[in-house]
Amino acid sequence: MVKIDRGKPSFAEPFAGVEKSQWMELFSLKSAYLRNQVDVSAKRVIEAAAEAPDVYEALGFQSAEQMITEGYDLDIREVEHARKWLELSKADAPYREVVSRAEKAAITAEAVRSIKAEKPEATQQQIADEVGISRNRASEILSVDEKGNLPNSPTSETIEQEAVRRGISERCVKRERQLQRDHPETFERFKAGEFKSLNAACIEAGIVQRKVGVPVNDVAAVATILLKHYTKHELIEAIQLSALR
Predict the structure, then answer these.
(1) What is the 3-state secondary structure (H, E, C) of 97-130?
(2) How many CB atoms lie under 10 A from the CB of residue 100?
(3) 68: closest CA among 81, 60, 58, 79?
(4) What are the DSSP calls for 149-166, one per residue?
(5) pLDDT tens digit string along 178-208?
């Protein structure tokens, strides 16, 4: 059987479409593209995140979530917002633009629910007028569950309830609450969009230490990744100190 050399992979290729020996190289290309391309499309981001459950272990990550948040430096909450937005709109757009639209929609929804909680007697039209949206939009937001109850208020939600409502992991909810509680200024900057992800905000606040995932069976790939974060001298010194222990 003749094996065809396909050459270097393209960042747009799926992991399933290249040899497993090229996965680390492909991951590096995808990571660099997602981190540095200002107008990367939402579709590309969602496709990259969707592959994580199938490849994270082979790339040296402990979980798909770690690959997405630390490998690609993406906020899982934002990725999910973008995914839902594209499902509804059926049209691709720059990722940041899609996330911005989705977050504005989420803020609007929260405002509608808050007004309804404070003024249960208010009509949908009155609420719509106060928020500045259509009555139909207010009606969609206030759609009740099977028991006829309004969605839980965020202030009284458990971590599990908030995670389910927002479609994100409990770990993200915990980190966001910790950031808001212990580092309110950084939290406000995060909400204002100054950080690329929740993980990046938590790293600056000192809640999370920056980590990189490395494959355990490819020394050259490990060295390539580490040299992006440390100088050659720092690595040599670290190896020498480690050998003395």
Answers:
(1) HHHHHHHHHHHHHHHHHHHHHHCCCCCHHHHHHH
(2) 16
(3) 79
(4) PPPPPGGG--HHHHHHHH
(5) 888 888 888 888 888 888 788 888 888 888 8
Both structure tokens of 9: 């992979």
Q: What is the pLDDT of residue 245?
A: 65
72-98 as b/e, with b when 16 or more CB fall inside 10 Å?
bbbbbbbbbbbbebbeeeeeebebbeb
Coil, helix or strand for 59? Answer: coil
Q: How many other CB atoms are there within 10 angstroms of residue 61's CB atom?
A: 23
Amino acid of residue 49: A
Mean pLDDT score of the chain = 79
Longest dimension (CA), the chain: 75
Rounded CA-CA distance 222/60 in Å is 10
Q: For residues 219 and 215, what is the distance between their CA atoms, to the nearest angstrom? A: 8
Beta-carbon count within 10 A of 203 CB: 17
Predicted TM-score (pTM) above 0.85:
no
- DSSP labels for 208-244? S-------TT-HHHHHHHHTTTS-HHHHHHHHHHHHH
pLDDT at position 77:
81
